[in-house]
Design a protein that fits this description.
Blueprint (H helix, E strand, L loop, with lengths): L4 H8 L3 E5 L3 H14 L2 E5 L2 H9 L5 E4 L8 H9 L7 E5 L4 H9 L4 E4 L4 H85 L6 H29 L6 E4 H11 L1 H6 L2 E7 L4 E4 L1 H21 L5 E9 L5 E7 L29 H11 L3 E7 L2 E7 L1
Parallel strand pairs: 1-2, 1-3, 3-4, 4-5, 7-9
Antiparallel strand pairs: 6-8, 9-10, 10-12, 11-12
Length: 391
């Protein structure tokens, strides 16, 4: 707080003053006083010059006379107030006519000092108005600092989110590579058996008929085609892309089930699709696949944690009453505890700490849904949970 004259002067010296006075002796005398308070003073000798200098300078404070040639003080103040309603304006004049007071009040003048100047009155008026500027500056500095702190914290949170998202992607990639390995085991085994059989026959010196060769070739080719298709599907899933395209929903979900086929078999899950063949969405293929793979993985974990024997997942897709495409993924894994169901889409929220869960899976799925102009929600149903994706 500016309680002392020294503090007042220290702050006021940082301000730029526009001083307007047509009388030269009075101007020189007043300038001697003003230089105590202001280092930077712009001087004008009439209202017209004052308007020009105000428009061409950044002015923080104005002290002006009233009766001046060309343009009087009130007209000058009116010009200033048309551009800036907050800048402090002092009238320094020998006139004490009531009409001047009324007009100056209407223009929002901050102080009126009658000549000859009394130092106590001048300092008192200056102190009030400079203190107001001081508070405004403090508020601005506080706002700027707060804004910078908020920006820093937001950037810090974004950086943490990026790390967590990357960790989630890596965890998902590890799971997917396990799936690729499982999906390739059987084809590799079939290829090995057929080629080993041919080699053994060759070693025994046996002759081959054309049907035997064709049969072996067809079996090996079929398995290689399956492996290539599997690899292509996973490459598409991992390849980062912002491409939005028209996707057939049934084909998309068939592809998802192909990706996790071995995982479904290994965990003895019965997954049924009930999807109209004509349903299409506008979205990013890889990102939407990520959502459903995550939902299926979560259902698998819930089945295993709750020791569910008859594991069922039903995926229904249809046009709802609002003419929007709705996809319900329903399981019978026991549902979500009511005390956490409202938190499961929050970042870092997990019930899988012991198994190394990051709490980012459903958060990422919700984020991806929003990015693709959809909404992901959940509710408990009989014996399980229903994750609802609405486009």
């Amino acid at each position: 707080m500016l309680e002392s004259l020294n503090e007042l002067i220290e702050f006021s010296k940082e301000l730029k003053l526009l001083y307007v006075e047509d009388d030269e002796p009075s101007r020189k005398q007043t300038l001697d006083i003003l230089k105590i308070f202001f280092n930077d003073i712009v001087v004008a000798v009439d209202g017209a010059e004052a308007i020009q200098k105000y428009d061409n300078n950044h002015i923080d404070f104005i002290i002006t006379d009233i009766n001046m040639p060309k343009v009087n003080g009130l007209k000058f103040i009116e010009h200033v107030r048309g551009k800036n309603t907050d800048i402090p304006v002092f009238i320094l004049s020998a006139h004490s006519d009531t009409s001047f007071f009324i007009d100056s009040i209407d223009l929002g003048v901050d102080g009126y000092i009658i000549k000859p100047i009394k130092s106590e009155q001048f300092i008192s008026q200056m102190k009030k108005k400079v203190y107001r500027l001081y508070l405004q500056q403090q508020l601005k500095d506080y706002h700027d600092n707060l804004e910078n702190k908020v920006k820093e914290q937001v950037e810090e949170l974004r950086a943490k989110d990026k790390i967590l998202i990357q960790q989630t992607k890596l965890a998902t990639m590890g799971e997917m590579m396990d799936i690729v390995a499982h999906q390739w085991k059987q084809p590799i085994n079939i290829i090995y058996m057929n080629t080993s059989f041919v080699k053994e026959l060759m070693d025994e010196g046996m002759e081959f008929d054309k049907n035997m060769i064709d049969n072996c070739y067809n079996k090996v080719s079929t398995q290689i085609d399956h492996m290539v298709k599997t690899l292509d599907d996973f490459r598409e899933f991992f390849r980062p892309s912002q491409k939005i395209e028209r996707l057939n929903l049934k084909e998309l979900l068939d592809s998802v089930l192909l990706l996790v086929h071995d995982e479904i078999i290994r965990n003895q899950m019965n997954v049924k699709l009930n999807i109209e063949a004509s349903l299409n969405i506008e979205a990013n293929s890889g990102e939407i696949k990520h959502i459903f793979i995550n939902l299926l993985n979560n259902a698998r974990d819930a089945f295993n944690n709750n020791n569910i024997k008859d594991k069922k997942i039903k995926i229904d897709a249809y046009l709802n009453n609002n003419n929007k495409i709705q996809i319900d993924t329903i399981d019978n894994a026991g549902g979500i505890p009511e005390d956490i169901i409202n938190n499961i889409f929050e970042p870092n929220f997990t019930t899988k700490e012991k198994s190394g869960g990051t709490g980012m899976g459903l958060y990422m799925s919700s984020f991806i849904a929003k990015k693709n102009h959809a909404k992901l929600s959940v509710e408990n149903v009989e014996n399980g949970a229903c994750f609802r994706l609405v486009f």
